[in-house]
Design goal:
Elements (H helix, E strand, L loop, with lengths): L6 E5 L5 E5 L5 E5 L7 E6 L2 E2 L1 H9 L11 H23 L8 H25 L2
Antiparallel strand pairs: 1-2, 3-4, 4-5
Length: 127
């Protein structure tokens, strides 16, 4: 028997014992701890299930070999992880969010020019 809160044992249509994911109701949160990569936390009914997901993903046995619906679960998690990471980066980004793509590009170029002014002044003074 597999010991994990996120995996349940079922009987399929042929009467064979199989394993399936117990829930797809996982909330994914990305947090920044000051490093380069964010920390991702998985919650189910406000309970931390991060260790359960790590046990499934990084266990000695491939989850694809024994969990029937793992591919769908992994796809769902991947999409939620991407959304959580994008939300995190949007929350700490300096770019305005209410601009069109062209306006954001022009704003980025303006910021780059503004940031390069001290370098240009220093080059003129010390040249």
């Amino acid at each position: 028997m597999i010991m994990n809160r996120l995996i349940k044992e079922c009987i399929n249509e042929q009467g064979k014992k199989v394993y399936r994911m117990a829930t797809y109701d996982i909330e994914v949160i990305a947090k920044s701890n000051g490093g380069l990569s964010p920390t991702i936390i998985y919650l189910h009914h406000n309970q931390d299930v991060t260790d359960d997901i790590r046990d499934i993903r990084f266990g000695a046995r491939s989850p694809y070999s024994y969990i029937e619906d793992y591919d769908e679960f992994q796809t769902m998690l991947y999409n939620k992880e991407q959304k959580a990471i994008n939300d995190l980066y949007d929350s700490i980004s300096l770019r305005p969010k209410n601009m069109t793509a062209t306006e954001q590009t022009l704003w980025s170029i303006g910021v780059l020019v503004l940031m390069s002014i001290p370098l240009l002044v220093a080059m003129l003074i010390f040249h």
